[in-house]
Amino acid sequence: MVVTRIAPSPTGDPHVGTAYIALFNHVWARKNGGRFLVRIEDTDRARYVPGAEARILAALRWLGIPYDEGPDIGGPRGPYRQSERLPLYQKHAEELLKRGWAYRAFETPEELERIRKEKGGYDGRARNIPPEEAEERARRGEPHVIRLKVPRPGTTEVRDELRGLVAYDNAEIPDVVLLKSDGYPTYHLANVVDDHLMGVTDVIRAEEWLVSTPIHVLLYRAFGWPVPRFYHMPLLRNPDKTKISKRKSHTSLEWYKAEGFLPEALRNYLALMGFSMPDGREIFTLEELVQAFTWERVSLGGPVFDLEKLRWMNGKYIREVLPLEEVAERAKPFLEAAGCAWPDEAYLRRAVALMRPRFDTLRELPEKAPYLFREDYPFSEKAQEKLQEGLPILQEVRPLLEAQADWGETALEALLRGFAGERGLKLGQVAQPLRAALTGSLETPGLFEIMALLGKERVLSRLAQVLGNRP
Hints:
By secondary structure, the protein is mainly alpha-helical. It folds into four domains: 113 residues, Rossmann fold (3-Layer(aba) Sandwich); 103 residues, Glutamyl-tRNA Synthetase, domain 3 (Alpha-Beta Complex), CATH 3.90.800.10; 117 residues, Orthogonal Bundle (Glutamyl-tRNA Synthetase, domain 2), CATH 1.10.1160.10; 88 residues, Arc Repressor Mutant, subunit A. It has 19 helices and ten strands. Strand 1, helix 1 and strand 2 form a beta-alpha-beta unit. The radius of gyration is 32 Å and the shape is elongated. The termini are far apart. It comes from Thermus thermamylovorans. Its EC number is 6.1.1.17. It is found in: Cytoplasm.
């Protein structure tokens, strides 16, 4: 059975890069009838952020990337937390000592800093401490770490399923720390131990971890465990081709949710960052992605995360993919947060249908059409100018609208066209001041559709306000 996983660290906002990697882990597991697991790598206590784990899991649920439970490996059933299994890692570090694949190192932080400055990195000097002496010093409680003992000389071969076989000179592989002096494992030890005990068969992660893979292959060899298949996905890039970061791009999944991006659209866009459909389609469901997925169609080029392209895709989902009723329902929290109200569900659906060609995110609906939901809508400078120019015309139009019985779009258009023709005016000379009065803007959907939606009472009330009278 294929088993995949993601292993985020709870050190801040749920990252769009985590979602990108999670998506392909989920897809590959589903493609093969396997399992997709989540592991929380929370051993870096200095960077640990309370509540970050819950936010990561909530973001995955919002995005529609469900994970599975797996075997109990020393803590509660998934998601797994490394901080709950410290004795497990300590036990495996001791096993490596017994097998001759690790050694205890007693340098102080000051000594390590001096070695780094002089040698450019740790030089493995603690390898020369006789094992009996090292064990005695450890029994006496002398602070120390446990390091990997990389075989030298030699080479370590790594097979990346997307890149082929790569050989690393062991002289270039450092004796990394496996267990810190506080008893917490480093990423390398915990990663390999957990992946093995969780039954992970396919490690799908970002290409930045490719440099760590020879260390992990050595650890698998040291324990006598089978090596999983590795797939290192291309990193998401900023428009300037640098690695995506919050300094240059929006990386928090919570930001995209708050801005009114649809999870289906964001998930679809993330899929396009690493994969292309055989027929060239850009809009597809998660189920269609699973069905069509092959590693041969994964590109290794650095995908650029383009916010404008995502906005375009989100707009496509709003206008063409989701049913009108669904868009209206999802827009409600954004409307309510903006202080908007609507008389009934029918009105809301008509308003959304009217505005749907004009907004790309749900948050834009109340921003672009406050006049459909509030009476205290703002006026643009151009709208104010047009309104002042057209006040005499509006004064004449108001009684005609008061007498109008048929409030449908066609009847309203006929009324205003007839009025303009009688006065020798172009329709725009009548419509634009009226548009400004009713919406506070000159950039709106059709005026007659807006008037029909607002209804006679609200139209007359707004005209009364701008004309300085009361209904």
